Amino acid sequence: MANEEKLKPKGSCLGKLVAVVALGGVAGLGAAVFFMAKPQDLSDIKGIAGTAKSRDLRAVLQSAVDRGYEVTLTEEEINLYLKQTLQAKQGGLLEKSVAFEGVRVRLEEGRAEVIMERSVMGYPMTVSMFVRVQQTLSMKGTTQTTVLRDGGPFLPELPRTERLVKGGRFGQLVIPQGFLLLVLPAYEKLAAAYRKELELGFEEMSRITMADGKLVLDPRPEGDDILPVPQPPR
Fold first, then answer.
1. Cα Rg for the chain, rounded, in angstroms?
2. What is the distance between the alpha carbons of residues 233 and 210, in angstroms, rounded to a whole number?
3. What span, in angstroms and rounded, lies between the C-alpha atoms of 103 and 186?
């Protein structure tokens, strides 16, 4: 019997390694779900509380384009404008258990975060999309503006072709850009509701700067700090 017990095979190192990796994967998935279900803190965003009135931002932008002067929109008045003008509600099968609470915009250095807040059976939930603006100056002197749906790379030190970019947040969890496909239809509807404001603010402006708490827009074609578009080799 003693010899038989000695001959029993012990667990291999490979089997233990697989078990540890599987356990780590399950733990990581659980942590991800936890942070996705936990809404992000919106207390730092200006303009989502109170009863103050915002300027008519569409009229402000139109005037800046027509008269050719720089205009600064603060985070507070953008959120007040959204609160005053956006009329939306949850539809579909979840209409009775999900309430649409509104859209919030957080302005940071070099990017904006557009946050949608919902209440699911009384519990708040948030999803967001990062937005950046890339501007280049062509050899003809015209400004080309591209709106990027990302908040920059997770690891900037990696080569540009290998970078994984931040798309937004599900709850408190920062997600890769590809996951935005799950919420893209809602953001497309939001863009359609503010088509004129977005056209004036991003298509008619030559200089766009996103900074902490403010958005600076200038329709004048002064391209001192706009990089020229590199020309392909002949």
1. 24
2. 33
3. 11
